[in-house]
Design brief:
This is AbrB family transcriptional regulator. The longest helix has 10 residues. The strands form 2 sheets. A two-stranded antiparallel sheet has the order 1-2. It has a two-stranded antiparallel ribbon with strand order 3-4. The chain is of the alpha+beta class and 76 residues long.
Length: 76
C-alpha cells in the first residue's frame, strides 16, 4: 500500500488509511530517518516529566500490623 503526499494550505499531508484503525485526534511524534524515511509514533506520556515527585509514592502495607507479618513468617 502506498499513500501520496499532497498539499493542503501551507502544509503537506499524508493520509492514514482506515484499515489501520487509528482513532481521530490521536497525536503522533514525528521523526525523520537518515535515509529520508518518516516515522510516526503515537505520543506517549513521559513518566519523568511533570510533578510526579510531589505525589506520595509510599505503598500501602499488605499487613494490618507487624504481628500479622510475624505470624505469616512463623507459619512458613
Amino acid at each position: 500500500m502506498s499513500v501520496k503526499l499532497r498539499k493542503v494550505g501551507s502544509s503537506h499531508v499524508l493520509t492514514v488509511p482506515n484499515k489501520f484503525e487509528v482513532t481521530e485526534n490521536t497525536e503522533f511524534d514525528v521523526f525523520q530517518g537518515r535515509d529520508g524515511s518518516i516515522i510516526y509514533t503515537p505520543k506517549r506520556n513521559n513518566p519523568f516529566e511533570g510533578n510526579w515527585y510531589n505525589h506520595d509514592l509510599q505503598q500501602e502495607s499488605v499487613f494490618e500490623d507487624v504481628e500479622d507479618l510475624n505470624i505469616e513468617l512463623e507459619e512458613e
